[in-house]
Amino acid sequence: METLPGNPMSGAPDPSGAFSALAAEVRDALKRHCYRMMGSAQDAEDCVQEALLRGWREYAALRDPGHGRAWLYSIATRVCLDALRARKRRQTLFGPSLDEGAPGTEPWVEPWVGESADDIRLAFVSLLHGLSPRARGVLLLHDAVGMTAAEAGEALGLSTAAARSALQRAREALPPRVPMKIDLPVAAYVDAWNAGDLPALIGLLHNDIVMTMPPWRRTFVGLGAVEAFLASVWPRHDGFRAVAVTANGQPAVAVYTKRGDGPYLAHSLHILAGQGTVSELVLYAPPLGAALFTAFGLKTVF
Predict the structure, then answer these.
(1) C-beta separation of 33 from 140 below 8 A
(2) Chain segment 238-283, per-residue pLDDT in tens
(3) Which helix (H) or strand (E) is 230 found in, with range?
(4) pTM recorded for the entire structure
(5) In this structure, is the dihedral angle defined by the CA atoms of residues 22, 23, 27 and 33, taken in order, positive or negative?
(6) Per-residue pLDDT tens digits for 2-24
(7) In terms of DSSP bridges, do strands 250-258 and 239-247 run parallel, antiparallel, or are they unpaired?
């Protein structure tokens, strides 16, 4: 089994410690990049590990250490593209699974814990996943890393013309990004769930709210549709507990439910967006929602 890059016990060919310093400097940003490529925090971590391992092996051949950051991003993007191709092959052979974007055909994105960077806002990353993986890679290398189209193409084995074409398609597909504004009654949302007060919860939602439920292919548009859905599932549970958390730098709420005299069990993760009222609600439904509690470091029994 190979040791990880930068491990002093690895005997790595890095006597000056230059690669270890580079890896430490860019690791967090590299994980955000891989998350935007993969749509999964765990897959992003796996891709970062592989990218750093490849970088450690190849660092001695890097002609200009001053370009080390862009070089590592190039490696990480190729690792992500390989992983996405492998994911597609698995889905072709065995069908999609809950951790690979199913059921339904629309891309969905697993939430990211903790950070508030605008480039991992859930809506933005979801839009990225409407692009082809290659266009996504070119766009991110161009915009986030600062490469020219020619440099991004070279990094991904594309001609300059193909890279420019991919960049143009990505630009046309994505709307202009606007700064994230957060002004939501999160405490009232939590209180409504804890009190089992459906009317109070509905009162916090915008008339034109859009609610999606990854990974299931379900979208509810408008207050009436959301209220009807919640009213249909609310009586199935005998109590709720809710806890405010943060995901993708946005307000989020972890909801636990119970039946009868049993304990409160992890149920769903709700990510909120809007100004004043909740106009967008991404509700990660069971069993995916409950599975995310562990990834977020949340207890699964309340």
Answers:
(1) yes
(2) 999 999 999 988 899 999 999 999 999 999 999 999 999 999 999 9
(3) helix 223-233
(4) 0.80
(5) positive
(6) 444 444 334 455 656 889 999 99
(7) antiparallel
Look over the chain and give the mean of its residue pLDDT values, rounded to a whole number: 86
Question: What is the C-alpha separation between 194 and 258, in angstroms, rounded?
Answer: 12
Enter the CATH code of domain 18-173.
1.20.140.160
Type of residue at 171: R
Q: How far apart are CA 280 and CA 163, in angstroms?
A: 34
Q: At residue 208, what are phi and psi to the nearest 5 degrees?
A: -105, 30
- Cβ-proximal residues to 38 (8 Å cutoff; 6+ apart), any chain: 44, 47, 80, 83, 84
Mean pLDDT of all residues in 213-218: 84
Sign, Cα dihedral of 87, 100, 292, 132: positive
Give the whole-angstrom CA distance, residue 52 versus residue 6. Answer: 9
Nearest Cα residue to 141 out of 27, 5, 30? 30
Over the stretch 51-85, which tens digit does the pLDDT of each residue have? 999 999 999 888 888 899 999 999 999 999 999 99
Domain borders along the chain are 18-173, 182-295
Q: Could you give phi then psi for residue 221, rounded to 5 degrees?
A: -115, 125
Domain 182-295 indexed as CATH 3.10.450.50: yes
Q: For residue 3, how many other CB atoms are within 10 A of its CB? A: 13
pLDDT of residue 207 exceeding 90: yes
Give the helix ranges, DSSP H, for 234-286. Answer: none
Rg (CA), the chain: 21
The rounded distance, in Å, linking the Cα atoms of 272 and 280 is 6
